[in-house]
Design a protein that fits this description.
This protein is mainly beta. The chain contains 1 helix and 9 strands. It has a 4-stranded antiparallel β-sheet with strand order 1-8-3-6, with no helix packed on it. It has a 3-stranded antiparallel β-sheet with strand order 5-4-7, with no helix packed on it.
Length: 137
Amino acid sequence: MSAEHAHLPPGVEVINTLPEAAARIPAGAEARTIRVTLAPGDPGAPPHRHPGPLFGYVTQGEILFELEGQPPRVLKAGDALFEPGGDVIHYQGANNLPDAESQLVVTMFAPPGSPVLTVVGAAELAERRHLRAGRPG
C-alpha cells in the first residue's frame, strides 16, 4: 500500500488512479454507473464509441478488451480499465471465457441525454483501419 493510501480503513483498497482523467470529462457531464454482464463466449457490442470517458474494473471473469490504437488485451477480475471516449473506437469488449459469465462495472462521464454507445459503421471502420494496433493498414 502506498503512503498516500495508508489512512484507508481495513477492506478499502484503491484499485487504480488516473490523474489525467478529469481533463477529459465534458463540461456539464453526468456520471453514470454501468454494469455489463456477458454470457459465456459473448462477443459483446459491435465496434462503437462512447460520448465521454469511462473508468471501471472487471468484477468477474475475463474480458477481451481492445481500443483503437492499442493491442487487444485480456482483463481479468480485479483489473481496471479506462476509455477516453469521444472519437476513440472501442473494438472489442468480449467475454474471453467460453464457459462462464464475465462482468465489468464502469462509471461513464457523458453529456445528459447522450447515448451510452454509438455503433461505428463499416465505412468509418475501413477509413480508420490504419489506427487499429497490430492490424494491417
